[in-house]
Amino acid sequence: MSAELHYQTIAELSARLGRGELTSVALTQAVLARTSAVEPRVGAFNSRDEADALRQAEASDARRAAGQALGSLDGIPIGLKDVIAVRDQLLTASSRMLANFVSPYDATVTQRLKSAGAVLWGRLNLDEFAMGSSTENSATQPTANPWDLSCVPGGSSGGSAAALAAGEAIATLGSDTGGSIRQPSSLCGVVCLKPTYGLVSRYGLIAFASSLDQIGPFTRTVEDAALMLQAIAGHDERDSTSFKTEIPDYRAALTNKRGPWKLGIPKEYFGEGLDPEVGAAVEQAIAYYREQGCEIVEVSLPHTEYCLDAYYVIATAEASSNLARYDGIRYGHRSRQASDVVDLYFQSRAEGFGEEVKRRIILGTYVLSSGYYDAYYLRAQKVRTLIRQDFLSAYQQVDALITPTSPTPAFRRGAKADPLALYLCDIYTIGVNLAGLPAISLPCGFSSAGLPIGLQLIGQPFAEAELLAIAAAYERGHDWHQRHPQL
Asked: Of all helices (H) and strands (E), which one includes residue 364?
């Protein structure tokens, strides 16, 4: 039985736990055994505490025995990206800057998962400070794609996607600033949801770009994504950008909302740079929706060509501001080579940050500097408004949009040494963050090399229930989500 537990869904395992067919301890032991077997090859974790996971599982079993189960996530092992604070655990952002930092508090999403009874399991690898698209920028180790260990899992939440795909957790959390949940989800063949900006609290998330960052779940199925979102969504007074809105029953919406829907195909997302196999898989998904009675129409997002430029001005500017706090004085890495206080600041940051983080800090500082603010940052914010208006205009015609998630399947480690080549991996995802919209990625096929391909659905603001229902309609007709890598 334990051999296949690590690939079952939250919904399946929760039902078995509820019927008494399974204990959380047995489930957690199965996940721990699986992790011990494959982690040396995958490298998804920065740190993990097996004894603590088993203690949480024992507490879950005790609650169930007393008739006090906390819901669908009670007793389910869930991994967290190493930028989400868990009290008394390491919080490193995969950086030398925070190599030994222990969080003194829980993030809001952490508190909510604990309240739901989840077994919080391990700290998952990422591109340093969430800056990257391949998890090659981690200061700890590169993470491998479970479908092909010579390939990257995507990024920046590569550890979260790879751990789930490899059966090292039943679900995971990541963060998405420009595609950091959706792109690795596509490359690793799992489901993920990037919520509307403000739906999930950012309190306790190490900041990269505060107006773009959003926490979201990686799961095996759309139903599991709904269960995870139910647990973590909702207003939080500790996050000034948290939005007060009613939280519907996302799981019920999967069956209550049946369509057919009017779906838009942005013509700008199907041009140069799209891998032919990815394009063909997405076209087949579009054909499936058409067969189910959905109306498919072409729409235009005319400012798409400016998304990459605007994003890398805004995101780096905010990163420069957010990362100024790492000064070698208050907390984080402190250089032992400094000769005075000023030198301490320079040396600590030079030693603590990796090359990609330095590159973005320098660029962000430049676009915010005197004489350049209006020319770059202010102009990028104006373009951002136009990009959001493009999406909102499209939603006057359609219920949601269908696009590829990533322009290519997973690529080999080291194949994109040029930073710009890596930046282009997020070409279909960054517009969603600039506009603050929800989006979901789910498997829609495989390349001829056996690598997963992802389908992206982009929804209207705070319309996650509808978006999940549209995704579930596709998933019900296919078995891509039931396929797993052979490790």
From this structure: helix 355-368
Would you state the pLDDT for residue 477?
97
Q: Are 80 and 119 in contact (CB under 8 A)?
A: no
The residues annotated as belonging to the active site are 81, 156, 180
Coil, strand, or helix at residue 444?
A: strand
Structural contact between residues 219 and 322, judged by C-beta atoms closer than 8 angstroms: no
Question: Cα separation of 166 and 223, whole Å?
Answer: 19
| pLDDT tens digit sequence for 183-209 | 999 999 999 999 999 999 999 999 999
DSSP line for 387-414 = HHHHHHHHTTT-SEEEEESSSSS--BTT
What is the mean pLDDT of the segment spanning 76-86?
A: 98
Report the predicted TM-score, pTM, of the whole model to 2 decimal places: 0.97
- 11: three-class secondary structure by DSSP: helix
Distance CA(232)–CA(215), nearest Å, equals 9
Q: Which residue from 65, 442, 415 is spatially nearest to 281, judged by alpha carbons? A: 442
Question: Binning pLDDT at 50, 70 and 90, where does residue 3 land?
Answer: very low
Per-position b or e across 429-467, b if 16+ CB within 10 A of its CB: bbbbbbbbbbbbbbbbbbbeeebbbbbbbbbbbbbbbbb
pLDDT at 2: 39
Task: Report the percentage of the chain scoring pLDDT > 90.
Answer: 95
10 token code pair: 């939250």
The residue extents of the domains of the chain are: 2-263+397-482
Q: Is 329 helix (H, G, I), strand (E, B) or coil?
A: coil
The model's confidence at residue 417, banded by pLDDT at 50, 70 and 90, is: confident
Please state, in angstroms and rounded to a whole number, the distance separating the CA atoms of residues 157 and 141.
13
| Strand, coil or helix: 358 | helix
pLDDT over 70, % of the chain: 99
| DSSP-assigned letters across all residues of 338-353 | -SSHHHHHHHHHHHHS
What CATH number was assigned to the domain covering residues 2-263+397-482? 3.90.1300.10
pLDDT exceeds 90 at position 169: yes
Could you tell me which of 481, 455, 478, 468 has the C-alpha nearest to residue 228? 468
SS (H, E, C) 234-284: CCCCCCCCCCCCCCCCHHHHHHHCCCCCEEEEEHHHCCCCCCHHHHHHHHH
**Residue 1's pLDDT band (boundaries 50, 70, 90)?**
very low
The number of C-alpha atoms within 13 Å of 466 and in the hemisphere containing its C-beta is: 18
End-to-end CA distance of the chain: 18
Burial class (CB in 10 A: 0-12, 13-18, 19+), 358: middle
Q: Phi/psi of residue 39, each to 5°?
A: -60, -35
